[in-house]
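Hi V.,

Quick status before I head out on leave. The structure for the redesign project is tokenized and pasted below; the design run finished overnight.
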């Protein structure tokens, strides 16, 4: 999957398409993360999210934190052994 950045869209004169895609991403990313978690026994790691969405570590963290705030995931463990488990709200 090829991911284009804002600069690529801007250079092609397609700024509106970039904004539309970003809006879609903000909706689809949590759905995709939940689907992956379900297929992995109910849990994902930050690394899983980075690989799934092709995003940076800070972007993966921000998405996972938002999902925690929305009570879709809960954090278990600490540091490099941390993972995010699906809550009862989404199971």
């Amino acid at each position: 999957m090829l991911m284009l950045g804002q600069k690529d869209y801007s250079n092609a004169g397609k700024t509106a398409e970039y904004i539309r895609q970003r809006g879609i991403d903000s909706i689809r990313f949590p759905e995709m993360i939940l689907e992956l978690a379900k297929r992995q026994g109910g849990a994902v790691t930050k690394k899983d999210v980075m690989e799934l969405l092709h995003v940076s570590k800070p972007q993966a963290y921000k998405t996972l934190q938002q999902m925690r705030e929305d009570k879709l995931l809960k954090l278990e463990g600490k540091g490099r052994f941390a993972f995010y488990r699906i809550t009862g709200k989404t199971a």
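Above is the designed sequence. The beta strands are 43-44, 73-76, 83-86.

G. will cover questions while I'm gone.

Best,
W.
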